[in-house]
Amino acid sequence: MEQNPQPKWEGKVSTRLAKATADQIWPLLNDFFNLHKWFPSLATCYGIHGTNGEPGCIRYCGGSSIPSTDTNKGGNNRPVSWSTERLTAVDHVERSLSYEIVDSNIGFRSYVSAVKVVPQGDDGRDGCVIEWSFNVDPVKGLVLNELVRKYEVGLQQMAKRMEDDAVRGYEEGKKHLIEGETQLKWEGKATAEVRVPAEKVWCFLEDFCNIHKWIPTVDTCYQVEGELGQPGLVRHCASSSTLASEGRREGIKISWAKEKVLMINPIERCLSYEIMENNIGFKSYVATVKVLPINGDGQDGCKIEWSFVSDPIEGWRFEDLNSYISNCLQFMSQNMEQAVLSG
Prior knowledge:
The protein is α+β, with helices and mostly antiparallel strands. It has 2 domains: 164 residues, Alpha-D-Glucose-1,6-Bisphosphate, Chain A, domain 4 (2-Layer Sandwich); 157 residues, Alpha-D-Glucose-1,6-Bisphosphate, Chain A, domain 4 (2-Layer Sandwich), CATH 3.30.530. The protein is elongated, with a radius of gyration of 24 Å. 23% of the residues are buried.
């Protein structure tokens, strides 16, 4: 005799944002590939297929608060929870979208979710409400009330971040309008000499998606989109650091940036790139890296020149950024030199 299938789990949560309008919040939610900017438990989120915000596009989310079903056979670290999610519908008039989980390691099957931003008040100026609903097959190891509570907490935290961003953007815009304030760009340059041929150093640098091999503070770097060696190539770089309080380990902070090649010239041995997205405070950053021969054809050694133009970064001084670039370049040049000489 066949067993009756368990009914679907259904849940719905909502939260009110008193200080942000639906028009301010909807673009943040429709930015489908960047949920990690707002959802606190996501370490990363990026597109793996299609155009951001258009039906059919797929994102990868890593670091969910839902525990992974993967078994961990070594060490004490929990496996990273992840899911790939497809945007199935978008309605800009109703400010709503729906998506489904394509694959995951968190035990979700037949998962479909909808998010909607509802304006409040006659003219929509009394804030807004975010509604988040879902249905999914029963999830092994969880109970429905527990899952709904996770969504409730996550939505409240996400809404707070979005509301703070909307208020901050409004206040900054008003301040600049009133004061006519303009900030000068930060411009800097660092150089390092390398006692190996220029062509060998350039081979390392044009391998854009493997910078973590040379800079020890970069834990991982990989290709996101585009073609190797061509403008438009995008890499994802990430570093981790331990958060501590009163001598106790509190968790791991992931700092990341997506960077795109703007120009690459193998003959002149130079490339330029920009930071597209990040969680470390960069608003506008463009860098150019050149390999310059010291004598003639550069067989006797070369110099790496790393220049940058950046908007001021909140919480940093220009000297901090300049020192950081210089230190990265010194480590990079030493590691490249050692790799050639030891090979």
